[in-house]
Specification:
This protein has about 500 residues and is mainly beta. About 15% of the residues lie in helices and about 40% in strands. The chain has eight helices and 25 strands. A 16-stranded antiparallel beta barrel has the order 1-6-7-9-10-11-12-15-16-17-18-21-22-23-24-25. Strands 2-5 form a two-stranded antiparallel sheet. Strand 15 and strand 16 form a beta hairpin. Helix 1 packs across helix 2 (about 35-45). The chain is globular.
């Protein structure tokens, strides 16, 4: 590419107005066909020439020189039409590495195209669900209203059913048994699509809106409802302070305890090497999912309670304190403390069937859900990574019942080893990961990054593989083989595969 050709193309593509201007270069004369374009670009400050005041139009330009011209041309974006903006967008992607070296972030360039950037993703997913077990809730609701405790081990289930009967201790002996409902969920195919709109308000402020269809099962009569799952403002106060206000992403530690949305505010101070953050608000994705394994011919079950209610007065409020640090280019460490206001574990147990998962929950009443933890990630080589995380409730204690080999831990932890370097936008990249996951029955896990079917009382080895089949198209497979609950009772294997398209 010759400099003369580049100069002429820049006047057309980069939106530089034509007009008469004084030419500063000694080797470009009024007789040259690109004289006017070169002079105008020099006047606008897009090209500078060389130190000897020559243009050297006969020389090929470097990618770095083109990136410099592109970066300077962005100052004229308000003069561009839609077609020119599309071309600039493509150029910014092509020269993203050179622009990054110049200190210009490509994502910022894209966001400035017409002040609004649109991106999104689509996902097709196959999931092999576990065997489910559903109680007939009616006979137990009355018993629970009397304040009776649930004991799953003092009575032998009737032989006619061969399944776990959960009955209050004070239930009358002659009360008719209620057979549980047992069903097996078949393999399920689902799809989901999301669109995100990012509007650049000014150099320091962005407004973000994301809409999502949610997961829709193939063949079901469930409607594909579209909802707003992100809506927030991002503002930068100088180079070291950033705020998010609205419904935005909240990521605690390495993602073991919570990775979901939060309706509130976050402030982050610092840079990659050392930063601290404070988040306060409501967490819509907070959920307890307590698994119980197969034991004594009892089927397994997941007891679930959503901590996000219809009225904000009844919802938990999170105050999250985090510190993250980076040592060189290989080690990342962090610590966090989360204070949960407005709800204690006793309220959750009282208003849901989660209480049935515990042998004795009396010691958890009026106990707040505050938790803390640490996490780390170490890069051993360009393709080998080790990561781990530990989290624990502050006020909720462990419980053990040795006679029945029952353990209920207040901790959760994970450790993993990754080989490879999966990059979603780069075809042919891949990674594999093996990971051990331990989620205590009383562990502080509510919406993890990890893809286990339960959040509590779950442990086992997990396998994960990722492969970019094309640019921005990723295939991911997951499996958990022979998982158990904390007492060693068996849980069903879990399989999942998905293909993601990003645009």
């Amino acid at each position: 590419m010759k400099k003369y050709l580049t100069a002429l193309a820049a006047t057309v593509v980069l939106g530089v107005t034509s007009g008469f201007a004084t030419n500063p270069f000694s080797d470009v004369t009024p007789d040259d066909w690109a004289y006017q374009a070169v002079a105008q670009l020099a006047k606008e400050g897009i090209i500078n020439g060389y130190s000897d005041e020559t243009f050297k139009g006969q020389h090929n330009i470097t990618r770095y020189e083109m990136a410099q011209m592109l970066a300077k041309a962005l100052a004229h974006q308000d003069r561009n039409d839609a077609e020119q903006n599309v071309i600039i967008n493509r150029l910014s992607k092509e020269f993203s590495t050179e622009l990054s070296n110049l200190g210009v972030r490509t994502d910022i360039l894209e966001n400035k195209m017409g002040n609004i950037a649109i991106n999104g993703d689509a996902r097709l997913m196959f999931e092999r669900n576990r065997t489910e077990y559903d109680l007939d809730e009616e006979p137990y609701s009355a018993a629970n209203s009397l304040g009776t405790n649930i004991n799953r081990y003092n009575e032998t289930p009737p032989e006619t059913y061969g399944t776990r009967q959960i009955r209050p201790e004070s239930a009358h002996e002659d009360a008719p048994p209620n057979p549980p409902k047992i069903y097996v969920t078949p393999p399920m195919f689902t799809y989901r699509a999301r669109l995100q709109f990012t509007a650049t308000v000014n150099d320091n402020t962005k407004a973000v809106l994301r809409v999502s269809t949610g997961d829709k099962e193939f063949g079901s009569n469930k409607s594909t409802d579209v909802s707003v799952d992100r809506l927030y403002l991002q503002h930068n106060f100088g180079k070291y302070v950033t705020t998010f206000v609205g419904r935005h992403d909240a990521f605690i530690g390495g993602g073991l305890t919570y990775d979901g949305s939060l309706e509130g505010a976050t402030i982050i101070a610092g840079k990659d090497k050392l930063n601290a953050s404070f988040t306060f608000g409501y967490a819509p994705d907070m959920t307890m999912k307590v698994a119980t394994g197969r034991d004594r011919d009892y089927p397994e079950r997941i007891y679930q309670a959503n901590l996000f209610k219809s009225s904000h007065e009844n919802n938990a409020q999170l105050a999250i304190f985090q510190v993250n640090s980076k040592f060189g280019s290989h080690v990342k460490l962090g610590a966090f403390y989360t204070k949960v206001n407005g709800m204690d574990l006793g309220e959750i147990l009282e208003n849901s069937d989660v209480q049935m998962a515990y042998v004795d929950s009396s010691d958890m009443v009026n106990k707040y859900l505050d938790f803390y933890g640490v996490y780390g990630n170490i890069k051993l080589s360009s393709k080998v990574f080790v990561d781990g995380e530990f989290a624990k409730f502050r006020n909720i204690k462990n419980y053990a019942y040795d006679e029945y080999n029952i353990n209920e831990s207040n901790k959760a932890w994970t450790v993993g080893l990754t080989y490879g370097n999966y990059i979603p936008h780069k075809r042919g990249t891949w990674s594999v990961k093996t990971q051990y996951i331990f989620l205590g029955k009383r562990g502080p896990v509510f919406a993890p990054t990890f893809w286990t079917p339960a959040n509590q009382n779950y442990k086992g080895w997990a396998l994960q593989g990722k492969y970019a089949v094309a640019n921005n198209v990723g295939l991911k497979v997951y499996a958990i083989v022979n998982p158990e609950d904390e007492s060693g009772d068996k849980l069903s294997n879990y399989y999942r595969a998905e293909i993601n398209y990003k645009f």
